[in-house]
Amino acid sequence: MNDRPYARELLATARDAFSTEILPALPERLRYTGLMIANALAIAQREVAAGDAPARAEYERLCKLLSERPAPLAGDRLYGVLAGYNRRLADEIRAGRFDGKESAAMVEHLRRTTEEKLAVSNPKALPGKNQSQEST
Amino acid sequence: MTNLNDPATRQRLTEFVARAAGARNASIIALEQMSGGAVQENWALDVDLDGELRRWVLRTDARAAVRESLTRAQEYAVLKIAHASNVFAPEPLHLCEDPSVTGRLFFIMQRLPGVAAGHRVTREEKLVPDPGQLARELAANLARLHRIKPTQPGLGFLKTMLARDDIAHYRSYLDTLSQAYPVLEWGLRWCEVNAPQRQETTFIHRDYRTGNFLVHDGHLSGVLDWEFPAFGNPLEDIGWICARCWRFARPDLTVGGIAGVEDFIPEYERVSGRHVSPQDLDYWQVMAHLRWAVIALQQVGRHLSGTDPSLELALTGHILGQLELEILNLTGDT
After folding, report:
1. CA atoms B197, B203, B207, B210: torsion sign
2. How far does the CA of residue A72 sit from the closest CA of chain B (Å)?
3. Tens of pLDDT, residue by residue, chain B (334 residues)
4. Which residues in chain B are closer than 8 Å to A102, comparing Cβ atoms?
């Protein structure tokens, strides 16, 4: 087992030092790269903090939608099964199996999955949050 | 990167310009690369032709052409026709198809004044004192562009992409990926089920949005980047300029971060004689976000595959969630 501080703590400390000490000292032409590095560190930090919880929630909802019995999966096995279930869901959506009344529960699942993803990748874009936009 | 300022190249370019313009004396006053353009390079070219100063842009391939993009000769042909149809666009002047001049094909066009950068156009009030007026100019200009019909001679190389062609195209791309994208599949299925019964087909620009047009003295000066046109449903261009990703500093303003739809749609309807319903607008905004999602996946793919490792491309992968949320919001109450 690694010694503390763990990855999550190291990322937080590194990002803090980068944002308060390096970023303000960067010349204008490097500022955009600096902002991208700070953003990448923040995403990585939130991903480590969230752990398996979002994947686990997504898996349990998918089991319900696809009429599968949920198993106590974790780690690589969880992500492997999740990828397979998402492929099945995608194929069934394309084949029109969620066109009718079944769409409500499926779309609700997609919305929650998307919001869980945004909580890691871009929490500012979550509904009810300040709508600031990153554009290229 | 091409170096057009190498003395021998500059000499050959001077000779080409004199010949093409029918001038007795030509000399290059200034030649420098302009910012932007990862795929194509633009060079600001000032030339003295028999004592008269001309301000031009030389546009040339930066590297191997990307898929789905027109060749310079095709782009030149498109610009000729757009310009002749009273669309605000730089006038194309000379096409060079002889690779011995600079090593690559290029064309020369008029250099229009103005600012294109999306974050400036949507933020700096002095650049756009009357945003409603600019939105109406963009609408009228788009309506004129949509008067170019598939029967137009000289554009036979353009493909036709109607709603179902777009859907098939995006699906075939998703099928090449190892990961599945259920939200995008849902958006595509929704577009398939709700596809317009009757579709008009006109010339479409396919990248008509903030960041791709010049604003000068608060007015539309010209539309740039004619790389991706096709024949298709004209409403596709309206969905694209209204997509969230082009609103830059003003996500609250639907039309490219410049104005609300009330300043754009009525003027487009007036000049085009075409009706745009709120359902049409939703439909083509969903399609726009699907297209942008596919582009984002292609960009992050360049990073992940190792062909083009870059932090910017890597982070593009993380805008997918925003696009998916927008698709879910637009496909409405379930």
Report:
1. negative
2. 23
3. 568 889 999 999 999 999 999 999 999 999 999 876 556 789 999 999 999 999 999 999 766 545 567 888 999 999 999 999 999 999 999 999 998 999 888 999 999 999 999 999 999 999 999 999 999 999 999 999 999 999 999 999 999 999 999 999 999 999 999 999 999 999 999 999 999 988 899 999 999 999 999 999 999 999 998 989 999 999 999 999 999 989 999 999 999 999 999 999 999 999 999 999 999 999 999 999 999 999 999 999 989 999 889 999 999 999 999 999 999 999 975 4
4. none
Residues of B in contact with A83 (CB under 8 A): 179-180
Distance CA B261, CA B247 (A): 13
Q: Specify whether the CB–CB gap between B58 and B9 falls below 8 A.
A: no
Taking residue A68's Cβ as centre, other Cβ atoms within 10 Å add up to 13
Q: CA angle, B146 as apex, B145 and B152 as ends, to 5°? A: 90
Beta strands (DSSP E) in chain B are: 26-33, 40-49, 52-61, 92-96, 106-110, 160-161, 202-204, 213-216, 219-223, 230-232
How close is the nearest chain A Cα to the Cα of B156, in Å?
Answer: 32
ipTM comes to 0.92
Q: Is B179 on the interface with A (CB under 8 A)?
A: yes
Task: Give the HSE-up count for residue A97: Cα atoms under 13 Å, Cβ half-sphere.
Answer: 12
> B286 with B327: CB under 8 angstroms?
yes
pTM flag (> 0.95): no
C-beta atoms of B252 and A121 within 8 A? no
**CB proximity B209 to A under 8 Å:** no
CA distance A82 to A86: 6
Cα–Cα nearest to B106, from B54, B33, B53: B33
Interchain contact B10–A (C-beta under 8 A):
no
Interface test with B, best of A94, A108, A112 (most B CBs within 10 A): A94
**Amino acid found at A42:** A
